[in-house]
Specification:
This protein has helices spanning 7-22, 56-65, 82-91, 102-106, 122-131, 146-159, 173-183, 221-225, 238-243, 254-271, 361-375, 399-411, 419-438, and strands at 26-28, 47-52, 71-77, 97-98, 112-115, 135-138, 163-165, 190-198, 279-285, 298-304, 310-315, 320-328, 331-336, 339-344, 388-391, 442-445, 450-452. The protein has 453 residues and is of the alpha/beta class. It is globular.
C-alpha cells in the first residue's frame, strides 16, 4: 500500500517541487522589433517632438526617444535652466529651450510632446496639449487627484488626440505573454493576486540631492508650485521640494503614485481589466524616513474589484524583489521583471484525506483501500505536472512604450495606456492614499466621481 502523506509532509513536498521548477530551462521571448536608426528616415518624414521636464525621468525618456527611428527632438522646456543645458547635451545640438511649456504648444513644427513633470502639473499640461492639437506621452501616475483624472479623460475624448501614460510595462513582452497565459486560464479559477516591491536606500525613497546651484536666478519657483502651494522661496526647503516632490502630497502621490501605479497598471493589463477598484483598504506609516515628508514610506493595500482579492504592498524600509503571484485552482503564475514562471497544482487530493484519522480502524482501512484502488496510478503511469518559465527583456524598458506612442501619433491610433486606462489605474492609487489618510476603507462612486468612506 502506498505510504500516506500527512498535510505537513504534502505541503513540504509540493513546496520543494515548486522551487525545483524555478531552475528549469527557460523559454526566451523575442523582443518587439523596432526598426533601426532615424538616419534611414528622410527629415521630411520624421515625427518632431518637444519635451516638457528634463529631470531624472525626463532625461531618460529623452535619451531613449531620440534613439528610435523616425523621431526627432526639436525643443525642450524646463523651469530650471540647468536642464536646458542637459537637454542640448543629450540631443547633441542647440535645440530651442524655454521655461514656458506653452511655447511648445504654439510651435507648429512640433507634432507631439513628452511630459515628465511633477504630478500636480500633469492635468494642466495634458489638457493644454490636447487642446492645442498635440498628442502627448505623460508620465505616470496620470493624475494628482480623481478630479484631475476626470478632466483629462474628458479633454482627450473631446479632442481625439493620442495620449499615452507612462507605465511602460504594459508594452513589455513579459506582460504580453503573461496576459496571454492568464486569458487561456492557466491558473484556473483566479483566487488571489499578490504584488510587492521593496527598497532599502535613501535614493529609493526619493532622498535625491537637489542641484547645488538651484536658486531664484535660474529656477522659476512660483510657476513650479502652480496651484499646489504658495510658499515663499526657502533656500533650505525649496530645493528639497523641487528634487524630492514625491515625499509631499501637495506635489506628488507618494508610494502609490510612484510604485503602486506600476503594480496596478501591470496587473490590470495582464488580467484584461480596465476599471477602478470598488473598494480599497490601506495601512501604512512613516517608519524609516522621518525627514519631514507627509507621505508614508510603507504602504499596503487590499483592493476589491468584485473578483478575486488583490493585495499589493510597498516598503521603502526593506529591499525585496518586485513580483506578482497570480494564484488559482490550477497553480501559481509568478511574474517578475525578467521572467514568468508557472508552478502547476492539480487542485485534487494528492493522498487520502487526513480527516479519516478520526475514523474507527475498520472504517478507516476500508476508506483507504477504496481510495487507493480508485486513485493510485499503475506503475510507470504516474502523472507528471510540468511547470515552465519564460524569460525576456525587462518590463521597465521604456523604448517599446515610447515606440508605441510615436506609432500611435504617426498613425492617429489610440494606444493601450490611454487616458481611460491611466485614469482607472490612478484611481486605485488615489483610493489607497485616501484610505491611508482617512484610516478607513474607501469606495469609488462613479456617479459623483468621488472617493467616499
Amino acid at each position: 500500500m502506498t505510504k500516506d502523506l500527512s498535510r505537513r509532509q504534502f505541503l513540504h513536498r509540493t513546496a520543494g517541487a515548486a522551487g525545483a521548477l524555478a531552475a528549469s530551462p527557460a523559454i526566451f521571448l523575442e523582443p518587439e522589433h523596432i526598426p533601426l536608426p532615424l538616419q534611414s528616415t528622410p527629415p521630411s518624414d520624421r515625427l518632431r517632438f518637444g519635451i516638457i521636464g528634463i529631470g531624472m525621468q525626463g532625461s531618460g525618456l529623452l535619451r531613449d526617444a531620440i534613439q528610435l527611428p523616425g523621431v526627432e527632438c526639436v525643443a525642450a522646456c524646463d523651469l530650471y535652466d540647468g536642464r536646458h543645458t542637459l537637454a542640448q547635451e543629450i540631443v547633441g545640438k542647440k535645440i530651442p529651450t524655454t521655461r514656458r511649456y506653452k511655447d511648445l504648444l504654439d510651435n507648429k513644427e512640433i507634432d507631439c510632446l513628452i511630459a515628465a513633470v511633477p504630478d500636480h502639473w500633469h492635468k494642466q499640461v495634458v489638457v493644454d496639449a490636447v487642446s492645442a492639437g498635440k498628442d502627448i506621452y505623460c508620465e505616470k501616475p496620470m493624475s494628482h487627484s480623481p478630479a484631475d483624472g476626470v478632466a483629462m479623460v474628458a479633454a482627450a475624448k473631446k479632442t481625439g488626440r493620442v495620449v499615452q501614460i507612462g507605465s511602460q510595462r504594459v508594452s513589455s513582452v513579459i506582460c504580453a505573454k503573461a496576459k496571454e497565459l492568464l486569458a487561456n486560464g492557466i491558473v484556473g479559477t483566479l483566487t488571489l493576486v499578490e504584488g510587492s516591491l521593496g527598497r532599502n536606500d535613501p535614493t529609493g525613497a526619493w532622498v535625491y540631492p537637489p542641484p547645488p546651484d538651484l536658486s531664484l536666478g535660474n529656477f522659476d519657483w512660483d510657476t513650479w508650485q502652480g496651484d499646489a502651494t504658495k510658499r515663499a522661496w526657502d533656500p533650505d526647503m525649496s530645493p528639497k521640494y523641487f528634487a524630492r516632490w514625491r515625499c509631499w502630497k501637495e506635489y506628488g502621490t507618494g508610494l502609490a503614485g510612484d510604485l503602486l501605479v506600476h503594480l496596478v497598471s501591470g496587473m490590470n493589463f495582464m488580467l484584461g481589466w480596465n476599471e477602478p477598484p470598488k473598494r480599497a483598504m490601506a495601512l501604512g506609516d512613516i517608519l524609516r524616513f522621518k525627514d519631514g515628508r507627509n507621505m508614508p514610506d510603507v504602504h499596503a493595500t487590499l483592493f476589491d474589484y468584485g473578483r478575486a482579492p488583490i493585495y499589493l504592498r510597498l516598503n521603502l524600509g526593506c529591499d525585496t524583489p518586485e513580483i506578482y503571484r497570480f494564484q488559482g485552482s490550477k497553480g501559481i503564475l509568478e511574474v517578475t521583471e525578467y521572467a514568468i514562471t508557472y508552478f502547476p497544482q492539480s487542485g485534487e487530493d494528492e493522498s487520502p484525506s487526513y480527516y479519516t484519522s478520526g475514523y474507527p480502524q475498520a472504517m478507516r482501512e476500508a476508506y483507504l483501500k477504496k481510495w487507493h484502488e480508485e486513485h493510485d496510478p499503475k506503475p510507470g503511469k504516474e502523472p507528471i505536472r510540468e511547470g515552465f518559465s519564460y524569460r525576456g527583456e525587462s518590463w521597465d524598458a521604456e523604448k517599446p512604450h515610447l515606440w508605441r506612442f510615436f506609432q500611435g501619433a504617426r498613425n492617429h491610433q489610440q494606444v493601450t495606456e490611454d487616458t481611460v486606462f491611466g485614469h482607472n489605474a490612478a484611481l486605485a492609487c488615489h483610493m489607497a492614499n485616501q484610505s491611508y489618510f482617512r484610516g478607513a476603507a474607501v469606495t469609488w462612486d462613479a456617479a459623483s466621481n468621488q472617493i467616499k468612506s
